[in-house]
Design brief:
binds pyridoxal-5'-phosphate
Length: 448
């Protein structure tokens, strides 16, 4: 499988894109295409014809292996891929029925850092380990609004030839998120940026454009622009469907299935669309955002207008210019109408998010984190206009990651899982950084 830059669609010339395609090694290690675009598979591979029928009997590792083979099978042997997949996923997504009107929650927080980012980050760490030439080193540079930083740092912790530098916005991540990023030490450096997540992302992008810097400090991006994360995130949509087959006699061929995805940088949703294009029978997606609603606005008006992000209680989705929008456009040939056939965009405000957290707990004794609450809320409002038989929403983080907000909103104590509690006791090791590129460059050079 070859990989192409999303920027080629702008010229409309897919032949040109073919000739400019790169290998998966280049796509994973290089992160961003040289024209500034994001990598996408050059074609959508074909699923084995009996895959969906077998899905109900496959473990997560089994289905991840088969799907990985479609994308990576020509580059990595089956035995090696098996090892990569097993090392990446020692945990599984869990589908639970929430209400008897066909609403299910897909829990994606059973990994080591309690957020769905573990799926993408761990798969990426394994692929980087596999592709990085012996004797060479790289610095994984990552901007985070909270969960990416901890997942990526944890996934690469102790790696001999990879240093991880995490930029996070000062005062805008939860206390537990901050502990998870700043207490690891070893090959992990945490930079506390005096600015917003958008500032962090801007600084990281500037570093990737700086050829001179990269000559001295080779860089790899672990933000959701990295292709490896995208591929891994498509796996759990298949798992959800497999679990649905096990839990119910449905879905049959005419069951309508909606999937609500709480979205910030839109990597998660893009992976879902990829799963649908591979043939997974999802009828439509609900792109659920907080008040950072540039994509729902685009779906409504056809105009994409990035804005500075605003802070909300679902802080991992406070993104004003989602980087994966380029991939969504690519998948829909830059057509808003085609995109709108598959994706319903809905923005949920703070009040509604809080009400949903309370309602969900009082009605079903299920504690949501604020991101999952945005998704459930959007799924429920989508139902007033768009029919579906079964609806799944993604619960992207464990409520304990957002303990302050959850406890003050729901009024019930949250049990903190032990793997989270231990990092609270450790010393924090963050380096403060001004939100300007020269400061970052100096810092990166001094680490080498
Ligand atoms: C990152 C994150 C999101 C948003 O995912 P995107 O792929 O950036 O759209 C949602 N919820 C949680 C808990 C996250 O960490």
């Amino acid at each position: 499988m070859r990989y192409v830059s999303t920027n080629y669609t702008d010229s409309g010339d897919r032949d040109l894109a073919e000739s400019a395609s790169v290998s998966v090694t280049a796509a994973v290690l290089g992160s961003l295409a040289s024209d500034g675009g994001l990598y996408m598979p050059a074609e959508i591979p074909k699923l084995p014809s009996d895959f969906l029928q077998r899905l109900g009997n496959l473990s997560f590792v089994d289905l991840a292996l088969e799907l990985s083979q479609l994308f990576l099978g020509a580059d990595i042997s089956t035995g090696q891929l098996q090892q990569i997949v097993e090392a990446s996923f020692p945990f599984e997504p869990a589908l639970r029925q929430l209400s008897d009107d066909g609403v299910y929650v897909l829990e994606l927080f059973h990994g080591p850092t309690l957020a769905f980012k573990d799926f993408g980050a761990r798969f990426m760490a394994q692929l980087v380990g596999h592709f990085l030439p012996t004797e060479s080193c790289t610095t994984v540079l990552v901007a985070t609004s909270g969960d990416t930083g901890s997942a990526v740092a944890n996934a690469f912790l102790g790696h001999k030839r990879v240093r991880v530098v995490v930029l996070y916005p000062k005062g805008q991540v939860s206390k537990l998120q901050e502990c998870q990023i700043t207490t690891l030490g070893q090959n992990i450096t945490a930079l506390e940026v005096e600015g917003s997540f958008d500032d962090c992302q801007r600084l990281v992008k500037a570093a990737f454009r700086d050829r001179e810097l990269q000559h001295r400090v080779p860089l790899t991006s672990a933000n959701s622009i990295n292709l490896a994360r995208l591929l891994a995130q498509s796996f759990y949509y298949f798992s959800a469907y497999g679990q649905l087959l096990r839990l119910t006699r449905e879905p049959s061929s005419n069951t309508t299935l909606a999937v609500a995805v709480p979205s910030g940088n839109f990597g998660n949703l893009t992976a879902g669309v990829l799963a649908k294009k591979l043939g997974l029978p999802i009828s439509f997606f609900v792109a659920a955002t907080n008040s950072n609603d540039v994509v729902p606005q685009y779906l409504k008006t056809g105009v994409y207008e990035p804005r500075p992000s605003v802070a909300t209680i679902s802080n991992s989705m406070d993104v004003g210019d989602p980087s994966n929008f380029a991939r969504l456009k690519f998948l829909y040939n830059s057509s808003r109408d085609l995109m709108a056939q598959d994706i319903v965009g809905l923005s949920v405000d703070e009040q509604e998010t809080a009400n949903t957290m309370r309602h969900c707990y009082s009605q079903w004794q299920y504690m949501l984190d604020p991101h999952g609450a945005v998704a459930l809320s959007a799924l429920r409002s989508a139902r007033s206009k768009h029919h579906f038989d079964l609806g799944i929403f993604l619960e992207t983080a464990h409520p304990a990651k957002f303990v302050e907000v959850v406890e003050s909103t729901v009024g019930t104590p949250v049990t903190i899982p032990e793997r989270l509690a231990i990092c609270l006791a450790k010393p924090r090791l963050a380096i403060p950084l001004k939100a300007n590129y020269e400061a970052l460059k100096k810092q990166l050079l001094s680490l080498n």
